[in-house]
Design brief:
GO molecular function: deoxyribonuclease I activity; DNA binding
Bound molecules: 2-acetamido-2-deoxy-beta-D-glucopyranose
InterPro entries: Deoxyribonuclease-1_AS, DNase_I, Endo/exonu/phosph_ase_sf
Order of helices and strands: EEEEEHEHEEHEHHEH
Low-confidence stretches: none
Keywords: Disulfide bond, Glycoprotein, Hydrolase, Nuclease, Signal
Structural class: alpha+beta
Shape: globular
Number of strands: 10
GO biological process, one term: DNA catabolic process
Strand content: 15-25%
CATH architecture: 4-Layer Sandwich
Number of domains: 1
Number of helices: 6
């Protein structure tokens, strides 16, 4: 599913595109956020439902920020959150994309101007120390994944939010990666609703407990 072409200049139009597996998720809604003052490329928001994840109903908000406006645009994602969570009566929202949320575009001091930082209900899953750029010349966590609230955080498989290093994963050279992009993708895994997977940690805990109480 794809947005229309977005941007201020006819020579630089971009689309948000979601590629998904129809046997894993159902797309149940789309919403093009409209505010030319807030974004150069306004988020194209998509709602998914799935029987296969512990989180059954969730909303994805993408952003490719304009670098020089990164602080303002990331801050405005809060308004997108308010609009779409009202529209679908659901606060399970994940933000993802190239926010330019690092290095010179978003400094430590800038964070107090960004509600997704000052409000601790927003969980930044890709950490500041990560490097989402391909070249060795920069080390910046431009690309991020953020989820709102405890329910979504609990639905994330622990420690799976990371940079997907295309070269090591697919055994291709750095120069081949650069032909694709100057950024690496970022990824995260949602917990499966398959019963035995969910039950395993609980089962282990219960065995330990009964072992301890037997002592
Ligand atoms: C998608 O929706 C159909 C119809 O409601 C349902 O049968 C199916 O289980 C859903 N798929 C997933 C992955 O949740
Ligand atoms: C999703 O869950 C259904 C049962 O709820 C199962 O039949 C199906 O194989 C699962 N799909 C995937 C891709 O795991």
């Amino acid at each position: 599913v794809s947005s229309d072409s977005l941007g201020n200049s006819p020579s630089d139009l971009q689309k948000y595109v979601f590629i998904y597996r129809t046997d894993t998720v159902n797309m149940t809604g789309q919403h093009q956020y409209k505010s030319k003052e807030s974004f150069v490329r306004e988020p194209f928001v998509v709602r998914f439902q799935s029987q296969n994840t512990t989180i059954r109903d969730f909303i994805l908000v993408p952003l490719h920020s304009e670098p020089s406006r990164a602080v303002l645009e990331i801050n405005k994602l809060y308004d997108v959150f308010v609009e779409v969570s009202k529209k679908w009566n659901n606060k399970n929202v994940m933000f993802l994309g190239d926010f330019h949320a690092s290095c010179a575009y978003v400094t430590r001091q800038d964070r107090k101007k960004i509600r997704l930082y000052t409000n601790s209900d927003f969980n930044w899953l890709i950490q500041d120390r990560e490097d989402t750029t391909v070249t060795d010349l920069t080390s910046c966590a431009y690309d991020r994944i953020i989820v709102y609230g405890e329910p979504f955080l609990r639905a994330i498989k622990p420690f799976t939010a990371k940079v997907f290093k295309i070269d090591t994963e697919f055994k291709i050279s750095r120069s081949q990666v650069v032909e694709l992009s100057d950024h690496y993708p970022v990824e995260v895994v949602l917990k499966s609703s398959a019963l035995f997977l969910q039950a395993t940690p609980l089962l282990i805990l219960m065995i330990i407990q009964s072992f301890l109480s037997a002592l």
